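lol forgot to send this yesterday, sorry. struct tokens for the thing we talked abt
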């Protein structure tokens, strides 16, 4: 009798294991964020340009031997000597630890990590006046930044502040397609953001994701031409459409890439 009962228990346990194993395979197959998905060719942004009246503005991204962006060159008439530079530095683990745009472009940020994490815990931002802010991040289970708290910590003695900086908190969430959403009532369209089924520019390198605080897998819809990897070559101007910021790129920009020869 005991043997017969033991056999029944073993049989039931086997069925449970088989059931959950099958469920797991089904979930992996249908999961929009699983590894079972189409991957684009390995590409990196070489440059982008836009025409503003009679002036052609061009931005060039330079990389190290590991494929990490290390310098961005901005070419435009209104910069001193017609150009401005932006530098990115890395630690021995290949993580961005310093992002230094020209003071005319943005704040200099130094990033801090915990252990071997690939996502920063916080950064210290210094603006053109020498004011300093601490920007602290919270992430989800996928390591994506979903909250940023910006807190003022210092102003140089010779700077007279005519307003009190109040701590800012920005929160995001990601939909089932892996694209960033914000509170729709914070924006004039009052509805979730709509994305294409093409890859986003942020997905081309972790640095772009951290700089823009955006890990969206897909790009915007207002694109006229794509390359073979599904990346935008020319945008469609639409003042009412959502725009994914990327350095100084705008809706008039044409983008050039370096890609491998095949799409996996």
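and heres what i got for the seq, position by position
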């Amino acid at each position: 009798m005991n043997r017969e009962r033991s056999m029944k228990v073993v049989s039931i346990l086997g069925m449970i294991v088989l059931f959950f194993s099958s469920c797991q395979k089904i979930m992996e197959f249908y999961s929009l964020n699983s590894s079972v998905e189409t991957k684009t060719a390995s590409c990196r942004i070489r440059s982008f340009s836009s025409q503003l009246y009679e002036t052609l503005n061009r931005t060039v991204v330079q990389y190290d031997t590991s494929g990490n962006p290390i310098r961005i060159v901005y070419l435009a008439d209104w910069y001193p000597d017609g150009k401005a530079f932006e530098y990115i530095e890395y630690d021995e683990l290949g993580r961005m630890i310093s992002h230094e745009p020209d003071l005319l472009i943005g704040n200099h940020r130094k990033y801090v990590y915990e252990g071997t994490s690939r996502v920063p815990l916080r950064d210290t931002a210094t603006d053109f006046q020498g004011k300093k802010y601490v920007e602290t991040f919270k992430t989800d289970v996928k390591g994506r930044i979903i909250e940023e708290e910006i807190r003022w910590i210092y102003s140089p003695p010779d700077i007279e502040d005519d307003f009190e900086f109040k701590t800012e908190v920005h929160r995001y969430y990601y939909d089932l397609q892996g694209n960033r959403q914000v509170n729709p009532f914070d924006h004039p369209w009052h509805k979730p953001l709509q994305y294409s089924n093409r890859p986003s520019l942020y997905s081309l390198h972790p640095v772009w994701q951290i700089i823009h605080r955006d890990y969206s897998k897909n790009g915007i819809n207002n694109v006229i031409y794509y390359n073979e990897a599904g990346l935008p070559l020319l945008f469609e101007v639409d003042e009412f459409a959502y725009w994914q910021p990327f350095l100084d790129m705008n809706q008039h920009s044409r983008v050039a890439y370096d890609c491998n020869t095949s799409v996996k």
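The two ends are 58 Å apart (CA to CA). anyway ping me if u want another try
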